[in-house]
Amino acid sequence: MSDTKIIEQDENPQEIPYELYQAVIPESVQLDTEVAPERPIVIDGREYQTNLPEGVQLIEPKGNSLKSAELIPKDFDALRPGKYIVHGGAEKGTNGEISEEIRRIEVRENESGMTILCDPPLRNIPVERDALELMQALGFDVSWGVGGRPIAGVPTPETIKAAAALLDVKIRFFPEVDQISGPDYLRAFADGEYPVSTKSYYYYRHDIGDNHITAMVLGGEPLKQALAEVATRVLAGTHELGNIDGTASAIDAFTAALRAVVSETELSFKEAYRSQSGRSTLIKRGEALGLTAEKTQEILEHAQEMGRTMGLEVMELQ
After folding, report:
1. Same-domain status, 147 and 102
2. Which of 23, 27, 137, 212 has the least CB density, counted as fewest CB within 10 Å?
3. Residue 174 lies in a domain
4. Are 299 and 226 in contact (CB under 8 A)?
C-alpha cells in the first residue's frame, strides 16, 4: 500500500500524501475537547499528552516509536465517538529535524455501534469490494482508499459481538492474551463459539478480518458443527489428530481457505485458491482436520449459497 491517508469518499477517490497526515504538530494542538480534556499519559516510561479519557491507556508500547505501538482493543468500548490524539516525545525525521510523535484515533458511530480508524493506514483492514455487505453486516465502517479500494474502520469488540450474533456467530473474547492458546482456542469452538483476542490489535485484526470470522458467517451451522465435533474430540483425546496446537492451526487454515475459495480475498493471488484448484485445496485443508470430502463439500455449498445472498461474486470452482 502506498503512503496515503485513507479518506471517506463516495466517488472519485483522492490520494492524499501520507506526509500530510504525519505532519509536525504545532505548539497549540487542536484537540476534540468534546470527548475529553487534554491530560498527560505515560507510555513505556515516556510522557505524552492526550485527550483519551482518564483510565483508558489504549496504546501498548512496541518498538521505540509511538507510531509502532499497538492499540489495545479491549479499551475501544471505553471511548465515545470523537477524534483522539496522543502526542509528544521527540522523533528525528529523515531531514534531521526534530518533531513531535503523533498517533491519531477516530471513533465513529454507525448503525451497528462504534468503529475505530487509526493511523498508520496499514493498520486498517482492506476489504474486497464485493464483500461490502458482509463486512458492514459485521459492524465495519467502510471508507474509500487509494484507487477506490474499500478499507474498513474496525468495529469495537462489543459492536462486532452484537453484529456477529445477528449472523448466528457467537464470539468469545480473550482479553488477557495476545495469541490465544491451542486449548482455549479449541474449547471455544467445542462450545460453538468463535475465539477473538482483544488484548492485541495485531491478533484482533487477524481474528475479525475478512478471512476467518467471515468464513464462520458463510459456513454457518455445517461449519460450526464440524469444528465443534473436531475440537471436542481432540480435547478429549479421542480424535486421531491428537495434537491440540496442530488442530488449532488447521482450523485457522481451513477457515481462511473456505473464505478464499468462495470469492476473492487477499489469498486469491495464490494459485491454490483459484477456480482451478480451490476445491481440492479446501478438501486437503479439511482432511487435515479429519473431515471427509463429502463434509467439506457440504460446508462449501452452504458457504457459496450464503455468499450469494450477501452479494459476493462467488467463484465457479472446477
Report:
1. no
2. 27
3. yes
4. yes
